[in-house]
Design goal:
This protein is mostly beta strands. Helices cover 8% and strands 23% of the residues. It contains one helix and four strands. The mean pLDDT is 95. Bound molecules: iron/sulfur cluster (2 copies).
Length: 61
Amino acid sequence: MFKIDPEKCLHCGGCVPVCPTDALELFEAGLTCDEERCVYCGDCVLFCPVKALELELEYQV
Ligand code: SF4
Ligand code: SF4
């Protein structure tokens, strides 16, 4: 599951071009992630300078 913390996000847009699948989009209201496109690579999470993004991986046993 992909999580965006709207209180931390500065709307800098820096993470948008980092995403290899174009899952991130920045609107006036904030950043969105299209989870149908996201491959959970974590690149944007590592990139974000204020740690506004988080990935929660769920494993099925
Ligand atoms: S890099 Fe971080 S602060 Fe900038 S738009 Fe992305 S989530 Fe927000
Ligand atoms: S985790 Fe990877 S695929 Fe998903 S939004 Fe971030 S950069 Fe894009």
